[in-house]
Design goal:
By secondary structure, the chain is α/β, with parallel strands linked by helices. It has one domain: Divalent-metal-dependent TIM barrel enzymes (TIM Barrel, Alpha-Beta Barrel), CATH 3.20.20. Helices cover 41% and strands 14% of the residues. It has 11 helices and 11 strands. Helix 3 packs parallel to helix 4, helix 7 runs parallel beside helix 10 and helix 10 crosses helix 11. The radius of gyration is 18 Å and the shape is globular. The N and C termini lie close together (8 Å). 47% of the residues are buried.
């Protein structure tokens, strides 16, 4: 059989970088990227707005200085409101891709509220149609830039629950970002999703999850922010997600996209060098490499 190979990237959110008001301590970009490179990462997502310079050339220069290439970025944008055109925000992000060669924009269907813990509205049929139409428009715009747009089912967005994910699967042909953590919290089994929809997956955010925390977030007993702070996401191999089966399912259909090692992290303050996010990301990287090695050994 063909050997399993993976393209691995880092994500600034694993270092606590997120432009949500009150999220947590924000580390300096140079330290974050230096730690990524020291761990052996050669690629990363851009991170949230404000982490890197806005200008395409300046953004590319910062990454190059740290020996990193760009994968793409996450953008939460309102898609369901017919009076709010999402394309200017999408275009603005895509303009920043020009100099860096990033190939994926990961879209989440934002509620319009700050953060991911607000009560979200219930969409009627017309709003669902607007959301799906705007997804198609965003995909077309991204294609003009040579970029793939993928939908990210995400906690606290309009596409979060198993029913919402199913609706997008059935009523559109939009590619998905498989986020193993957010799918579980929303009630979708990521292992089954990967088995059933591997051909629809164009990007992966690989997380491991402590299901005891996930159940509390799903039920509303704990906020998503507090879960991220207290241990919802754990280094790969230390939680309850069957990472090897997911990697195998994607390899079986020739998936050649990125595996972004991503833990949504909340920091109380500046971590000591080599500790906190760096230590966890090192463990994630080592685990994924061990999974690939084991899969290849079992096929030999």
């Amino acid at each position: 059989m063909t050997a399993v190979t993976v393209r691995i990237a880092a994500a600034p959110i694993s270092w606590g970088i997120l432009d949500v008001v009150g999220w947590g301590h924000q580390m300096a970009p140079d330290r974050v990227m230096a730690e990524m490179r020291e761990l052996g990462f050669t690629a990363t997502e851009f991170g949230s707005r404000g982490f890197l310079p806005d200008g395409a050339e300046e953004k590319a220069a910062v990454l190059k200085r740290h020996g990193l290439t760009a994968v793409g970025s996450f953008l939460d944008v309102v898609l369901h409101d017919r009076d709010r055109d999402p394309l200017p925000a999408v275009r603005s992000v895509l303009e920043g891709y020009r100099a860096s060669g990033a190939g994926t924009i990961v879209l989440a269907a934002a509620t319009g509220a700050n953060g991911f813990d607000a009560v979200k509205p219930v969409l009627d049929a017309a709003e669902w149609k607007t959301l799906l139409d705007n997804l198609r428009r965003a995909r077309s715009l991204a294609a003009e830039f040579g970029v793939t747009a993928a939908l990210h089912p995400h906690v606290g967005t309009m596409v979060e629950t198993a029913d919402e994910v199913s609706k997008v699967l059935v009523e559109s042909d939009t590619p998905f970002c498989l986020d193993t953590g957010h799918l579980i919290i929303g009630g979708t089994d990521p292992v089954q999703f990967a088995r059933d929809n591997a051909a629809r997956i164009s990007h992966v955010h690989l997380k491991d999850v402590d299901l005891s925390f996930a159940a509390r977030v799903t039920s509303g007993a704990m906020s998503f922010h507090d879960g991220c702070r207290d241990g919802l996401f754990v280094p790969l191999g230390r939680g309850d997600v069957d990472i090897p089966t997911i990697v195998q399912s994607l390899a079986s259909v020739g998936y050649d996209g990125w595996y972004v090692l991503e833990q949504d992290t909340v920091l109380a303050g500046e971590p000591d060098p080599g500790q906190g996010p760096a230590l966890d990301s090192a463990a994630c990287l080592a685990y994924l490499k061990s999974v690939v090695s084991a899969l290849n050994s079992s096929d030999s």
